[in-house]
TrEMBL record:
The keyword Nucleotide-binding does not apply. This is Exocyst complex component sec10. Belongs to the SEC10 family. One of its GO terms (biological process) is exocytosis. The keyword Transport applies. Residues 215-824 form the Exocyst complex component Sec10-like alpha-helical bundle domain. Pfam families: Sec10_HB (PF07393), Sec10_N (PF20667). Keywords: Coiled coil, Exocytosis, Transport. It comes from Actinidia rufa. Residues 1-24, 56-85 are annotated as: Disordered. Residues 1-14 have a biased composition (Basic and acidic residues). GO terms for cellular component: exocyst. Residues 110-209 form the Exocyst complex component Sec10 N-terminal domain.
Length: 834
């Protein structure tokens, strides 16, 4: 079978109706192209099947040709149910030639494939051999090519090195030739300068041609350098030889002439530079500056340009600066005007320097160097001149008065000037100042003032304190004079004539100190220096608050002392007339009023003193401590100084509180003596219904204590309040014991006493002093000795043996002490007490 062009297979099998009619012939062409075993077998079956179908039709009865075709469709036997039995009975295969075809096909395939594989292997071996041979030849060719390239590269390198050497030799020769030519030219010029001293008329036209000034300057500098080096090598100094006209064997004459010529040329260039500067010809200025840069690196040109600026040579500019900051001559400068003037001046200086910077950048080859000189000149001349007029250091021995502003005005102006100058330095640094340490230069302007700053700050704080105290004294004196002495003549408050402590004043002290600390922070950049300054300034505040509060407490104590003197003045004996006694009682009432007023005034002073100390402590914690912490020991030392400074005020407060207790107890004793009657505790009508009201003396004392101690409850706090009230309670207990020992008690009087003790006990309970409460409770127990029958006394104190001694003294005050023979009874019951 062969594949035709349209994809169909040609049939080469004999078309005999029988299978055995002829052999099946296949060749290798049948397996080429798109060979498919499925197509091969399909074609075989389709070609051979009809002959088998015709033979089998004759032998099969009952089957139609349609059924036979259906049963053999696609090479598979499909029969109906009634034909299955017949199909099973067939003993011969449907395709007897299949085995022969398969055997033939396998043999043909094996022969074709094996032969083709053998031929392909043989061909591959042949081609591989040819390929290996070709590769070998190519490798030999490449190796030879590499060798050729290596030889060529080596040759090129050799030629290149030779060419480079030749080029170097040529360049060196050209350089030497040029150098030799220049040297010959320079020697010729040098000989002209070395001809005769001071003779510059015979020089080459180069040195007089204005159009070749740059070249002349360059050559002159080279000749001068060479001549000076030559003289230096021979150890000859120019001045010793310059005056010798015959010393022509060296180059001394040349050096002198060159120096003269350079000076003359430099002056000529500077003149041209000035003329161009006046006409604002920046190109000419730049040309001159470039040439002048060959003379001492252009320093003379730079300095000359800076020195000729109007702000340095115009006197009117300096006067305008002074008027702007200080105002009119002879007037007292104010801080606000100085601050505004300095701000305006710094802005004007910055703008001027910025304009000059634009010109300098366009003119000079080294603008940074010129800016450094300009900024330095601004600070050292213009700013320093103004500061010298503005900051006149005051004398500490004879400081200016407060009407003139005092030391504080100088310190404030110093701070403003320092701050504004620092701002100016930062602005100038932004504009440009080269390598100049503008911050360090600014600091140096204030060195003289900063060295003695802390002494002036301390002196200023002392001056402010002194002025404030004088002001307060004047106000107090004026108030006292306006009120007159009428009030005091009627027993009014003595303390009204004394100056009272004011928290507002202490707050003002702190404000002064805060301002001083801010200046310390401004002037001190190092933590150690700042800590030392802050500590010194804070110590001034401690001294001021300590002295002010101590003096205030002492003045309040003086009121207590005066009130005590009034009480002593009106203590009379018993043998006086009724008229005198009445007058003395009236005076005693006035003294008592003065004492109460003094007590209240002192409590107010204590309260304000405590508030003042709290303000200082808060100020220390918020503002001072953080500045002291960087230095070891500074914080602890300041805390110790604060405690020491307040100790004097604490001592005055303690003494005053003791006087307050004395004042209160003196009035209590006066009230008890005046109001307590003998019949209060020994009523002649004993046996009738007892009076359960406290005595009039007790009511008056409790009312007085309630009224006067209201100030103490308000003024004192914490442990101070507890200690004061405890001491007062103990003194009251002791005073009452002493007072009651003057009286005799019957049972009804004992009940009245117990009512008084209860009243006193309820009052002192507000002291929150347990020891005092316990003492008054024991007093209530001891008062029972006046109430119980004599035979019950022995069992009264069985549970409280500690008060038997005081109880015995109370028992002796019983009305029936002698009649009931209680002394003997007690001695037998309590022998240890006897």
């Amino acid at each position: 079978m062969k594949e035709s062009r349209d994809g169909t297979k040609t049939d080469r099998i004999s078309k005999s109706p029988s299978v055995n009619s002829g052999p099946l012939v296949l060749d290798e062409e049948d397996f080429k192209g798109d060979f498919s075993f499925d197509a091969l077998f399909g074609n075989l079956v389709n070609k051979l099947l009809p002959s088998y179908q015709e033979d089998e039709t004759d032998s099969i009865e009952g089957h139609s040709s349609i059924g036979a075709n259906d049963a053999l469709s696609n090479g598979n036997l499909h029969t109906p149910s009634d034909g299955g039995k017949y199909a099973q009975g067939l003993s011969s295969p449907l395709f007897p030639e299949v085995d022969a075809l398969l055997s033939l096909f396998q043999d043909s395939c094996r022969e074709l494939i094996d032969g083709r594989l053998y031929n392909l292997k043989k061909e591959v071996v042949t081609q591989d051999s040819k390929h290996r041979k070709t590769l070998g030849e190519l490798e030999k060719g490449v190796d030879g090519l590499f060798d050729s390239f290596a030889r060529l590269d080596s040759r090129i390198s050799s030629v290149g090195q030779t060419a480079a050497k030749i080029g170097d030799h040529l360049q060196s020769a050209d350089t030497q030739r040029e150098t030799a030519s220049q040297t010959i030219e320079l020697i010729k010029y040098l000989m002209e300068f070395n001809s005769s001293p001071g003779d510059l008329m015979e020089l080459s036209p180069l040195f007089s041609d204005d159009s070749r000034v740059a070249e002349a300057a360059s050559i002159a500098q080279k000749l001068r350098s060479f001549a000076e080096e030559d003289i230096g090598r021979h150890g000859i100094t120019t001045p010793s030889i310059a005056g010798n006209a015959t010393a022509s064997r060296g180059l001394e004459v040349a050096v002198a002439n060159l120096q003269e010529y350079c000076n003359e040329l430099e002056n000529r260039l500077l003149s041209r530079f000035d003329a161009a500067s006046q006409r604002r010809e920046l190109s000419t200025m730049a040309e001159c500056a470039k040439i002048l840069s060959q003379f001492n690196r252009g320093t003379s040109a730079m300095q000359h340009y800076v020195a000729t600026r109007p702000m340095f040579i115009d006197v009117e500019v300096m006067n305008a600066d002074t008027r702007l900051v200080l105002g009119d001559q002879g007037s007292q400068p104010s801080l606000s005007n100085v601050a505004r003037g300095l701000s305006s001046l710094c802005k004007e200086i910055t703008d001027t320097v910025r304009k000059e910077a634009a010109t300098i950048t366009a003119v000079f080859p080294s603008p940074n160097d010129v800016m450094s000189i300009l900024v330095q000149r601004v600070l050292e001349q213009r700013v320093t001149t103004l500061l010298d007029k503005l900051l006149i250091k005051p004398s500490l021995v004879n400081p200016p008065t407060m009407e003139e502003g005092g030391l504080l005005l100088y310190l404030r102006i110093l701070a403003v000037a320092y701050e504004k100058t620092q701002e100016l330095a930062r602005d100038l640094r932004a504009v440009g100042c080269g390598d100049l340490d503008v911050e360090g230069l600014t600091e140096s302007l204030f060195t003289a003032h900063k060295d003695e700053y802390i002494e002036h700050e301390q002196a200023s704080l002392r001056q402010l304190y002194k002025a404030k105290i004088e002001e307060l004294r004047a106000e107090s004196q004026q108030s006292s004079e306006s009120s007159g002495t009428i009030g005091r003549s009627k027993g009014a408050s003595i303390a009204s004539s004394h100056q009272q402590i004011s928290v507002t004043v202490v707050t003002e002290f702190v404000r002064w100190n805060e301002e001083a600390i801010s200046r310390c922070t401004l002037f001190s950049s190092q933590p150690a220096t700042l800590a030392a300054s802050v500590k010194a300034v804070f110590t001034c505040l401690l001294d001021q608050v300590s002295q002010y509060t101590t003096d205030g407490l002492e003045r309040a104590r003086d009121s207590l002392t005066e009130a005590a003197a009034l009480r002593e003045r009106f203590v009379l004996g018993t043998s006086v007339s009724r008229r005198v006694a009445a007058a003395a009682a009236s005076a005693a009432e006035a003294a008592a009023a003065a004492g109460e007023s003094s007590f209240r005034s002192f409590m107010v002073a204590v309260q304000r003193c405590a508030s003042s100390v709290a303000i200082v402590q808060q100020y220390f914690g918020n503002s001072i401590s953080r500045l002291l912490l960087p230095v070891d020991g500074a914080h602890a030392a300041s805390c110790e100084e604060m405690a020491t400074a307040m100790s004097s005020a604490e001592g005055a407060a303690y003494k005053g509180l003791q006087q307050c207790i004395e004042t209160v107890m003196a009035e209590v004793e006066r009230l008890l003596s005046a109001e307590q009657k003998a019949t209060d505790y020994r009523s002649p009508e004993d046996g009738i219904a007892p009076d359960h009201r406290p005595t009039n003396a007790c009511t008056r004392v409790v009312a007085y204590l309630s009224r006067v101690l209201e100030a103490a409850f308000t003024a004192l706090e914490g442990l101070n309040k507890q200690a004061f009230l405890t001491e007062l309670g103990n003194r009251l207990h002791k005073g009452l014991l002493f007072h009651w020992q003057k009286f005799t008690f019957n049972p009804s009087g004992g009940l009245r006493l117990k009512r008084d003790i209860t009243e006193y006990g309820e009052f002192v309970r507000s002291f929150n002093a347990p020891t005092v409460d316990e003492k008054f409770e024991l007093l209530g127990i001891m008062a029972n000795v006046f109430i119980v029958a004599p035979e019950s006394l022995s069992s009264l104190f069985e549970g409280s043996p500690s008060i038997r001694k005081d109880a015995q003294r109370f028992i002796q005050l019983r009305e029936d002490y002698k009649t009931a023979k209680l002394a003997a009874r007690l001695s037998s019951l309590w022998p240890s007490s006897s």
